[in-house]
Automatic annotation (TrEMBL):
Gene name of the record: mtnD
Cofactors (names): Ni(2+); Fe(2+)
Entry keyword Oxidoreductase: yes
GO molecular function: acireductone dioxygenase (Ni2+-requiring) activity; acireductone dioxygenase [iron(II)-requiring] activity; iron ion binding; nickel cation binding
Reactions listed under catalytic activity: 1,2-dihydroxy-5-(methylsulfanyl)pent-1-en-3-one + O2 = 3-(methylsulfanyl)propanoate + CO + formate + 2 H(+); 1,2-dihydroxy-5-(methylsulfanyl)pent-1-en-3-one + O2 = 4-methylsulfanyl-2-oxobutanoate + formate + 2 H(+)
Cleavable signal peptide: none
Lineage, opening ranks: Bacteria, Pseudomonadati, Pseudomonadota, Alphaproteobacteria, Sphingomonadales
Cofactor note: Binds 1 nickel ion per monomer. Binds 1 Fe(2+) cation per monomer.
Protein name according to UniProt: Acireductone dioxygenase
May play a role in metal incorporation in vivo, annotated site positions: 95
Length: 183
């Protein structure tokens, strides 16, 4: 279930807010400049390729491109037996930033985006149907969990510029990791 937990950055043991209400989630994230939407999901075969996924969501993708100027789009799929799952998981577990927006629409599965301001941490569990757009420069980390399963559409202004710049702060190590419901 889509869920937002908000923590004091100095107190990772207990959230200040824990909500599954999409309107409340969108409102809290909008205050940060983060876009959160829920799109209707489409029935797709489990082995749908990139072209099939992009075709199914072409109207929504076109709307985002027109609205925000994204230039390219692709699909990433992770499964529990992916040979590089541990390396890919650890790659984004530490706090980092990007020089452009990080835009993801979850076609299936789930992943935990954790966003940080100076004194507050926002742990956003995204599931199928959720769109999140983390603004350029926002400190965050992403956890796909130890048994990742998701398919996500990614939009880029410049995919070559989408490189994580790690902050060196260990704050991500103090907050709960993602424990998928299906694990």
């Amino acid at each position: 279930m889509t869920q937002l937990r908000i923590y004091d950055a100095a107190a990772p043991e207990a959230p200040l807010l824990d909500t599954t209400n999409p309107g409340e989630i969108a409102s809290k994230l909008r205050d940060l400049g983060v876009r959160f939407e829920q799109w209707g999901t489409r029935d797709l075969p489990a082995d749908a390729d990139q072209d099939a996924v992009l075709s199914a969501y072409a109207p929504e993708i076109g709307g985002l491109k027109a609205d925000k100027g994204y230039q390219s789009v692709d699909v990433i799929r992770m499964v529990p037996d992916h040979p590089e799952k541990d390396a890919l998981r650890s790659k984004f577990l530490s706090e980092h930033r990007h020089s452009e927006d990080e835009v993801r629409f979850f076609v299936e599965g789930e992943g935990l985006f954790t966003l940080r301001t100076d004194d507050t941490v926002y742990a956003m569990l995204c599931e199928a149907g959720d769109l999140i757009s983390v603004p350029a420069g926002m400190r965050h980390w992403f956890d796909m969990g130890p048994t990742p399963r998701f398919t996500a559409i990614r939009l880029f202004t410049n995919p070559d510029g989408w490189v994580a710049k790690f902050t060196g702060d260990t704050i991500a190590d103090r907050f709960p990791r993602h424990a998928p419901a299906a694990a």
